[in-house]
Amino acid sequence: MIIHRAFYREAAQVTLAIAAVLLVLILLMSLTALLGRAARGEYSESIIPLMLGLQLLKKLDLLLGLALYLGILLTLGRWYRDNEMTVLAACGVGLPQLLRPVFLFALVFALAVGAVSLYFTPLASRQIEKVKSESPHRQEIGSVTPGTFMEAAGSQSIIYAAGVNPESGRLENIFVSNLKLGNQAVVVAGTAHAFTEAGTEHKYLALRNGTLYDGAPGEADYRIVDFETLNLRLRPKKAAAASVGIEGAPTWRLWARTDGDHAAELHWRLAKPVAVFVLAAFALVLAYTDPRRGRLTNLFAAILVYFIYSNLLGLGQTLIKKGVVPPALGLWWVHVGLALIAFYLFARRSANKPLLSLPARAR
Question: What biological processes does GO assign it (predicted)?
Answer without folding.
Answer: lipopolysaccharide transport; transmembrane transport
